[in-house]
Every structure is written in C-alpha cells, then in structure tokens.
Write a structure and sequence with these properties.
Pathway: Antibiotic biosynthesis; vancomycin biosynthesis. One of its GO terms (molecular function) is oxidoreductase activity, acting on paired donors, with incorporation or reduction of molecular oxygen. InterPro entries: Cyt_P450, Cyt_P450_B, Cyt_P450_CS, Cyt_P450_sf. This is Cytochrome P450. With 405 residues, the protein is an alpha+beta fold. The chain has a single domain (6-402), classed as Orthogonal Bundle (Cytochrome p450). It has helices spanning 6-9, 12-16, 19-28, 47-53, 69-74, 79-82, 92-101, 106-110, 113-127, 135-140, 142-152, 159-170, 178-205, 211-221, 227-240, 243-257, 260-268, 273-283, 316-319, 354-371; strands spanning 31-35, 40-44, 59-60, 132-134, 293-295, 299-301, 304-306, 311-314, 376-377, 400-402. It has a five-stranded mixed sheet. The longest helix has 28 residues, at 178-205. The mean pLDDT is 89.
Amino acid sequence: MPAVPASEVYTDSFAADPYPTFARLRENSPVCPVASPRFDSYLITRFDDAKAALTDPRLSKDLYGPGQHYLRIFGPNSEALNRNMLNSDPPEHSRLRRMISQAFAPRRIEALRPRVAQIVGELLDRIVPQGRAELMEDFAIPLPMRVICDLLGVPGEDQKRVLDWTQVIRTSGSGRKPEQDRAAVQEVQLRLHHYLAGLVKAKRAHPADDMISALIEACDHEGKLSERELVSTTFLLLFAGHQTTADFLGNATVALLTHPEQLALLRAEPDMLPAAIEELLRFDGPLPVASPRIATEDVEYGGVRIPAGSIVGVVINAANHDPEHFGEPDELDVCRERVGHIGFGHGVHYCLGVSLARMEARIGIGALLRRLPGLRLGVPVEELRRLPAASPFRGLLELPVRFSA
C-alpha cells in the first residue's frame, strides 16, 4: 500500500479542519501508511481499531528502546526529558505511574478546586474591563500552567520563563525555518533540563508540601525513582499538565462560539457543563493522534499488515468522529448522552490527570460563560492562527475575542 504523502494531510487547510481528511481515511484507508514531516507512520482511524490498538502490548511505547526511534526523530537532547512513564511499557510504566498516581487521586484534586477558582478569577479580573482579549495568552495557557506549577512546587517568580520555554516546544514548526526550529527546541530542552535538575536539588535541600518534594522522598528514601527518572517525570507532569488543557480550552471556546445554539443551551442550563465538556473533547480534542507506538512484531488491523519496526499513530480525533459509534459525529451536541470518547486515551496509558483537566475545564469554561457576556470571535473563524498541521497538538496560536465590558 503506497504511503499517503505529507502534501495531502499536513497542510494549512488540514490544520484548520482535519475532519474531512480523517473521514476519507476512515472510510477508504482506515489503516494506512502516511509520510509526515517528522516520520513515516501507520495511522489507525476507526474507533474499534483505535481502542484495541491503545491496549495492544505489541505496540510498544518504549521508543527509546531498541531502534532508538525517539532519538532519531526528536534529537539527542530529548531523552533526558522524555524517558518517562509516557514512553515506557509495563512493568516500568506501572512502577513509574504508581509513584505519582496518589497526587492525582480525585480527593486530592478536589482539594485544589478553590485554588483553581482563584486563578480563574484573577485572570478574568484582568480581562473583563477591556472588552477584548487574546484568550490563549490571557487565559487558556496561563490557567493550567499556574495550576500545575503550584502542584509541582515551581516558584512563582520562575513560572513565566518556564512557560516561555514550554511554548517554544509547543509552537515548533510555526514560522521558523526547520533548522532554526530544531536548534531552538534543542536549546530549550537543555535549559529545561538544567532548570528542573536545579529545582530538584533546591527541593531536596528545602522540601515543601508539593509534588516534587514528594517525588524526591520516593527517590531518596524509598529507592523507587532514579535521578534521571525524577527529572524526566517532573518535565512530563509540567508539560502534559498544562499543554492539552490549554489547547482544549481554546478549541472548546471556538466550538461554542461557532455553534451559537449550543452556547445558548449551556448559558441557559449551566448544570449541563460537565456533560458538555465530554462532548467538546470528543468534537475537537487537543491531542489528535496519540503519542507514537512502535510495532514490536507484525500486527494486523483492518486487514492491513503493519510490519515490525513501524511507528503507529492512533488517530483519536478520527476515532471520536466514527459514525459507527456516534450518531451525527460531525455535529456538536452538548446534550449528547453517553459520549464514550477516547480523548483521554484508553488502557494503561489512560490520562493520569483526567480529574484535574476536567476540573479546570469546568471551572474555566463556566466562568467564561458567566463573566464575558456577548462573547464572540474577534476575527472570522477562517482567520484564526493555529498550530501547524504537523504538530502533535491541535490548538490555536492566538484566539482574539470580544465581549461586553
């Protein structure tokens, strides 16, 4: 089967609306090789296949194992930050996940609710008098970033530069030349690693009631984490703890503003918000393709043989629009019952921060609807600037909005 060329899927029009392409792949080539700007892979697009692939032990997450695929794709500086539970298989994954699962227990996350509400209020207090905002920079990105930094124990005076570093990684491929982009990302990786290693050292000398201190205790006194795992896990929690939530807040806002009847329903019935969040995640999730897997042996999906050694991408956003599982899947319906999406993944790599992400989304979107009357896009939807199509994330570079001050 010939690979689908990058020119057919990684374009500006694809970045603006990938769902027609996902529908064609799902219908005509539900399992197909695709040549991307970063690496070639097999894409799995139907819901049943996607859900099965997310739990298939033959599809390994250990891309730093034999073959060193991540080093080849993302460069020599990536391993120090990315060799963590996201890129590991059981039993290593199980050991690492156990170490941090208690910090994300629903009861502990619920205790963060007042702090999340406080941050939301502070951000909106700055926005409300203006009558306009750039909602990504002013709200969607700083909200989850401040929450995860508080949880980890990143000092307030450091949070701005840490945010700036992570945004270089997030926006890679947006406007810079490829060689400049790679150099910028690799430099930031080194800076982040140096900073996080120093923060761990400082917390070891002066522990506090935060997650990094708890991980250090596990590392030093229980021998359950190596120093490398400690720093890499801190990076994973920092980046994953804000990136997808920020992009989701932007995507959800655009979805509601371009579906005014659904927005009106939520304004009239705010108790519908928890269910609406799940539908908004299904409709336009921030992680269109699950992080890569590597086939450790020949596997078959949809009658297509995927050779051993192939990189496999499970297209979550295509699966979440599969008409075999969702009626009128391309319609936003905040009243949809039993959404059953896989936006948070499935199986042992199911998102550990799901409770925190849902809380931030419910409090954040609820506050936007209450405090920004007449909220509307500041530019036509087709003029919104998005992350490049080759980005692993689906999100916005900017989200200008207007409202009644």
